[in-house]
């Protein structure tokens, strides 16, 4: 016997796996409170999206990561892995962000390795957030 679920074709979005890493770049961040437009965060997301992303990495601009005291900010979310929030970035940090996303996507344990991490991501780490699937520690 068949059911409607098995007879129905899967939607295009259901057939695609979510990206391994989504890199969110704050578009409202400013390095100085001068009110100049566009915001420095817009320039950072544009520079990051202009780079060729490794497979499984998606870059998205997002309005306000609420890390204003440490602007410019970005967050990396790994599917079934850890999430990282970075601050004190500069407008030229696009390559560092992409390298960090690649390291996170390729990490077998879901943790971005310290070795090989760009210096701006070492100095600028604000938080590391565990995945919901984190096993309980003894």
Folded structure, characterized:
The chain has helices spanning 4-7, 12-15, 40-50, 94-106, 119-123, and strands spanning 21-26, 57-62, 74-78, 83-86, 125-129. It is of the alpha+beta class and 138 residues long. It has a single domain (18-129), classed as Glutaredoxin, CATH 3.40.30. It has a five-stranded mixed beta sheet. Helix 3 links the parallel strand 1 and strand 2. The termini are far apart. The model is unreliable at 1-14 (pLDDT under 50). InterPro entries: DUF1636.
Provide a brief overview of the structure.
The protein has 138 residues and is of the alpha+beta class. It is 27% helix and 19% strand.
Distance between the termini: 46 Å
Mean pLDDT: 85
Helix/strand/pairing class, anyone? Answer: alpha+beta
Strand content: 15-25%
**Number of beta strands:** 5
Biggest sheet descriptor = 5 strands, mixed
Total of helices: 5
How many discrete domains?
A: 1
CATH architecture title: 3-Layer(aba) Sandwich
CATH class membership: Alpha Beta
Low-confidence stretches: 1-14
Order of helices and strands: HHEHEEEHHE
Question: What fraction, in percent, of the residue positions are helical?
Answer: 25-40%
CATH domain fold name: Glutaredoxin
Overall body shape: globular
Organism: Xanthobacter dioxanivorans
Protein name: DUF1636 family protein
């Amino acid at each position: 016997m068949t059911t409607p679920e098995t007879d129905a074709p899967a939607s295009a979005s259901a057939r695609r796996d979510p990206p391994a890493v989504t890199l969110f770049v704050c578009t409202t961040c400013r390095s100085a409170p001068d009110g100049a437009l566009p915001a420095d965060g817009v320039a950072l997301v544009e520079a990051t999206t202009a780079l060729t992303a490794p497979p499984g990495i998606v870059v998205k601009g997002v309005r306000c990561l609420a890390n204003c005291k440490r602007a410019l900010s970005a967050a990396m979310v790994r599917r079934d892995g850890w999430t990282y929030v970075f601050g004190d970035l500069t407008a030229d940090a696009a390559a560092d962000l992409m390298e960090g996303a690649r390291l996170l996507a390729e990490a077998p344990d879901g943790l971005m390795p310290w070795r090989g991490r760009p210096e701006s991501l070492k100095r600028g780490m604000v938080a590391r957030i565990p995945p919901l699937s984190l096993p309980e520690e003894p």
